[in-house]
Hints:
The complex is a heterotrimer of chains A (362), B (668) and C (337).
Chain A: E1 9-13, H1 24-36, E2 39-43, H2 55-58, H3 60-76, E3 81-84, H4 87-102, H5 118-126, E4 135-138, H6 139-155, E5 164-167, H7 177-180, H8 190-197, E6 201-202, H9 221-237, E7 242-244, H10 248-256, H11 258-267, H12 280-287, H13 292-295, H14 305-339, H15 348-351, H16 355-358
Parallel strand pairs in A: 1-2, 1-3, 3-4, 5-6, 5-7
Chain B: E1 3-8, H1 20-27, E2 33-39, H2 45-58, E3 62-67, H3 70-83, E4 91-95, H4 97-101, H5 107-127, E5 135-137, E6 141-145, H6 149-160, E7 164-168, E8 183-184, E9 189-190, H7 191-204, E10 208-211, E11 214-222, E12 225-232, H8 247-251, E13 257-258, E14 267-268, E15 271-272, E16 284-285, H9 291-294, H10 300-304, E17 317-323, E18 325-328, E19 332-334, E20 351-353, H11 354-361, E21 382-389, H12 405-419, E22 424-429, H13 439-448, E23 453-456, E24 459-464, E25 477-483, E26 488-494, E27 496-501, E28 503-505, H14 509-516, E29 543-545, H15 555-572, E30 577-579, E31 585-587, H16 597-601, E32 607-611, E33 617-621, H17 631-635, E34 641-643, H18 648-658, H19 662-666
Parallel strand pairs in B: 1-2, 1-3, 3-4, 6-7, 6-18, 7-10, 18-29, 20-27, 21-22, 21-27, 22-23
Antiparallel strand pairs in B: 5-30, 8-9, 11-12, 12-17, 13-14, 15-16, 19-28, 24-25, 25-26, 31-34, 32-33
Chain C: H1 14-24, E1 30-36, E2 43-48, E3 79-84, H2 85-96, E4 105-110, H3 118-122, E5 132-136, E6 143-150, E7 153-160, H4 167-170, E8 182-183, H5 198-204, H6 208-220, H7 227-231, H8 257-270, H9 280-284, H10 292-306
Residues 587, 592-598, 619, 635-636, 638, 640-641 of chain B line the site of one iron/sulfur cluster (SF4).
Amino acid sequence: MSGSATTSLTLGYYPGCSQTGTAAEYDRSSRACCQALGVRLVDVPDWTCCGSTPAHTVDHVLAGALAARNLLQAERIGHDRVATPCPSCLAALRTASQHLAQDVQPDSNAPEDMAPSFRAEVERLLDRPAPLRASAVSVLQVLAEDVGIAAIASAVKKPLTGLRVAPYYGCLLNRPPGLMAFDDPENPTALDRVLTACGATVVDFPFKTECCGAAFGMPRLDIMQRLSARILDMADTCGADVIVVACPLCQMNLDLRRGQVNDHSRRQGGREFSLPAPYFTQLLGLALGLAEADLGLDKLVLDLRPVLEAARAREQKRALEVAAVAAAKTAAKAAAKADGTSGQKPGKPGSEPGPKEDAPCA
Amino acid sequence: MRIGVMVCHCGNNIAATVDCEAVALAAREFPDVVFATDHMYACSDPGQKTIEQTIRDLKLDGVVVASCSPRMHEVTFRRAVERAGLNRYMFEMANIREHVAWISLDRKRNTEKATDLVRMAVEKLRYDRPLTAKSFEVHKRVLIIGAGVAGIQAALDCAEGGLDVVLVERRQSIGGIMSKLDKTFPTIDCSVCVLGPKMVDVGQHPRITLHTLSEVEELSGYVGNFEVKIRKKSPFVDWTKCTGCGACLEKCPSKKVPDRHNEGICTTTAITIPFPQAIPKRAAIDPTVCLRFTKGKCGVCQKVCPANAVDYDMQDEVLTEKVGAVITATGLDLFDHTKCGEYGGGRYPDVITSLQYERMLSASGPTAGHIKRPSDGAEPKTVVFIACVGSRDRSVDRPYCSTFCCMYTAKQAILTRDHIPDAKAYVFYMDIRACGKGYEEFIRRAQEEYDVQYIRGRVAQVYPTSGPTGGPSGGQLMVRGADTLLGAQVEIAADLVVLAVGAEAAHGAPELAEKLRISCDAYGFFLESHPKLRPVETNTVGIFLAGACQAPKDIPASVAQASAAAGKVLALLSKDKLESDPQIAQVQTIRCIGCGKCERTCPFGAIRMRELRDGSKRAEVVETVCQGCGICSVTCPVRAIQLAHFTDSQLLAEVNALCRTWDETTES
Amino acid sequence: MASDSSANASPDRTPELRAKIAAELEGVDFVLGYGRGFDPLHATPVTVRSEKDLGRLIFDPTCVQNLATSLYGLRGKRLGVVVKGCDSRSVIQLLQERLWERENLVIFGLPCEGVIDLAKLRASMDVASVKAASFIGSPRNGLLRLTLPEGGREVVIEKESAGLLADKCLRCQYPNPLVSDHVIGPETLPQGAQDTYADLAALEKLSTQERFDFWKRQMGRCIRCYACRNACPLCVCKHVCLADSREPHWLSAEATLQEKWLFQVMHALHLAGRCTECGECQRSCPMGIPILLLKRMMNRELKELFNYQAGVSLEAIPPLHTFLMEEDRIKDRGLLW
Ligand SMILES: Cc1cc2nc3c(=O)[nH]c(=O)nc-3n(C[C@H](O)[C@H](O)[C@H](O)COP(=O)(O)OP(=O)(O)OC[C@H]3O[C@@H](n4cnc5c(N)ncnc54)[C@H](O)[C@@H]3O)c2cc1C
Ligand code: SF4
Ligand code: SF4
Ligand code: SF4
């Protein structure tokens, strides 16, 4: 058996600009994971900017038109669900669908001075009707809901046993709740569940949706430094080996800009943080047994491999200890039996798979 | 037919924008109208006299008054025509004040519209028929559902007024939320000290029959003649024998049951008496946790009971009572804050609800009045209160204000500073709503005398500073929020966080509303008949509302409404006989095809199917139950049910009077 | 006329139908079925009381009538009735509204591949001159072979039957009877895609004024023959129909546009949540007024508001025959105060 899940699902795929540059590894690992789990992604033909930055800060109709164009392109090849890894693209695409869906055709008798509807404007900009049916979903939602946690768990080949992960969702992935309609906006759990299915130990991380400073890295570096440092500090405090992200911008702040963040932390008399910040798809890919090259592990600024090694070693050591304890117990029991003084219920301890029961929880 | 018309000026209310004289003049041309005049105040004594006199002088068969809303004066004028010897239903009212004068300033078009409305009334009157009410006997007893402070007050008032009271409470003891409170605002007097005596009175009053651990299963009948089925859950203890000595409580081995009266902050036994002042002070077993019921072993309580009252085989009992009126006083439940991930969603032991905090403050509570953090039992030095948790928050579908949280939060902050003088108390609030008597002063005291720090802003997040894996013990909770007055973010390291959870309708309230055939809003609060003029009545005659079941209310307001409801019931049942409204549905048996659709749709259960001699079925309206809503009449496929005084013909006459010009404008 | 047997031919269900009816004749007063009408293209309702009537029974794509229409007037009897998939929905509706008793009805259900709409044929030829007609293959993709006189001789022409199918058949979701005691022959597959209400959408493209004019034109042509009402299986008011009633006096006998229009609106409203779109009203209209549109409009609304479709489940209660304080999809509470 190939081990890949039985799901057979085909979706449109909108990579978004960052996936071709700073987040190339997110793109690569998303595609690899989806393929391994039986989800076929078909690129939206001739995709363009989703309108998220900077169009929507200048003209939200124009931004809407850009997003709508991409969705229409997907519809053209027969897909009305479009997956995207990037939460920012997701927000832009979903906003456009929602606005268009809610926009009623203006009444032909409407007074002249009424502003033309959003739909009318978008259609004028695109120079074609936009009877949009398509809508976007995050790759995370596709994996957690369409593929399903159980299917992921059964497809895992190399469980990440012993790796302590802090799941960091960022501010946008499931918010605003009315728009994203996925997971709890204040205490989301989809990543937790996916990572647990991969065999990792998910720490109870209170800063799942805290702000990382986002694009403030450019105009006000200090703000981004302070906010990202807080998140890393909390992940560290919680005892996480890695902080797992789902957004290219968060990832940039927590990984690429780690030097800047550590500078700031040091200046404030705080710690430096060494925990890597991979995309969740990279960890998932590892658990599914995919090749490191397919997951772009080399693209991470903070190398993931030493942490994985350390976790593996730790896990091995623990397993040995557990086995030793169990062996000692059986030996003692055997000795007692030989003595003929066994007052214990026979059979029961031996029939138990020892290590599991005594395993200390992390 | 001979019809008289009077157009009222209502001082200047109508006359300012309607030419009343012209309307009266026009009315003289309407069919059957033999007299039409205008009058300064039709409802005044001279106005009514004129109506009566004209009826007698001109031998009128019916009268139309064009004036205000029938809600105001229909009764007045009906009495007037009756005095002059007409049937009270030979009267029609055209509302030319609210529907015309008050909504437009265009005198010409107002006058036209008023004329149209009068024409409609005249046309309807031509189809009106005299109707007569029937009278029926009433039961002089009242059912009160829910025995919180509101139910208790209503029960005592009704009993003092001479009515027999059946009081039904679903918990083991009466008292409701108030019995859990420590002190009450704005006087900081002891809650149980003021409520206790009233509870005792209820227990002892000869006219009050108390059923606790009981719920209403079914209500049938109509005002004056309700029949109610009450399910008394088995306490597995014979309450006629139990003396409330508590010996069983001490010996019960199942001691890990979350204590409901103490809001789960401590545990109790499977057989309990909820609190020392409980009424009735009797023990009851919770079969879901009792070892005897869950595991089939134990039986200790039966052995230790000196009165031999424990009976494991006791069954639920269903009683039937006949009453003339019903008061619902089912109160409130609290918002479930675990829906709010930002405050920890129930994950942090040191984030507690306001009612849990009340129990902690209470000298009779599990901590004997000492404030202790649940995680480690330490005395908190910084307590942060978060207001509006589940109130005024559309994101959790609770858009309304719970009205009393601002006040109890101030109270709890004051008590915090009283109990632990070196503690700091912070309150995050959106607005302070303190509009009762002495309330604003109370808030001021909290701020000025007790130095409670009020921060205007919402809390974005509560998180443990030490990281949850490190274990919360000794660690603090960081409360991060906005201070909108400073325009800054604030973070406060708290030892204890108290959430001012908002009010929700008591669970099961919508189902109860359905049983009682009253309405509730989208949140389960019962709907009053009119928000201003009929605040304690429901739309079902004979059913009244008291306390927080109608909307979130504090104790003074709950008690006031309870007494008001009791007053209404006493007035209603002071009569030996009641008259039924003749404006009800009537079945034309020859038309009825017996399909039973009306029976299915009638929201009041007023229709039953009767069998004719040939075995076929026909609908029949139970006159006293029918509320005249007219739903059956629109459901009936063959129009066999007509609503008296609102028959198709009468309504058509009105519509036709209004739509005379259809052909001219559209058929061109 | 007999159906030709060819590769894709529909099964001839008539022999089995006759056999099944024969077996049930004893227990019923009579059975309502289809027989050949006054010409080869028309079927007509027949009553089967004894063995000797069995020979008159037929079933083919000319059997357009909804025999459920006769049921209400025959209450009190014990009957058998022959129904197609669509007709069975009318029966369900009658049963569900307690207008008939299930135990007094033996239902012979015919899985159906479509019936023809003569109006469509009439558009291209003189239907009255047809001497003989037969169907070849399934009506969905077969042929209708007609024999016509031409100058003393007879000629045979063929038409594709798919183009003649009734509109309701093109969107039919329930070709197999939803309630029956006997199913005659194998089941068929639904042929229509989901109903998109394209006809309504086309109408709604018009401006309000244009639509008003459209209906004014259409309603102006109504001659108030009440054929539509009489053909409707669910119009059960009969002698107390509001159109004829003096008390209450909803409609006058005047032949004005207003009265005609009001009648049709009343007809539609009284069928809200009940109409199964059998199309008999429109088929029977001698003036060809598209009155089914009004009913489809109501039905679309009901589908949206209550997610309800009439005549598909015996247990369902039509939404307008219930009373709820708060409907899921109607938010009127907020408007009160
Ligand atoms: C933390 C907190 C502090 C407060 N502090 C104050 C204060 O200091 N001062 C003040 O004025 N107000 C205060 N209040 C408000 C006060 O509690 C309410 O105003 C009051 O309890 C309302 O009384 P009630 O009788 O209407 O409802 P409840 O007290 O809720 O009583 C309703 C009763 O009906 C019973 N019941 C419910 N449903 C059914 C059913 N279907 N069948 C039978 N019985 C049923 C319930 O078991 C309950 O016993 C506070 C509220 C809270 C939550
Ligand atoms: S009018 Fe009809 S539906 Fe309304 S209460 Fe009376 S009988 Fe019931
Ligand atoms: S709905 Fe009309 S016809 Fe049917 S039972 Fe009721 S009154 Fe009779
Ligand atoms: S209204 Fe027309 S389509 Fe509807 S059930 Fe009656 S006859 Fe059939």
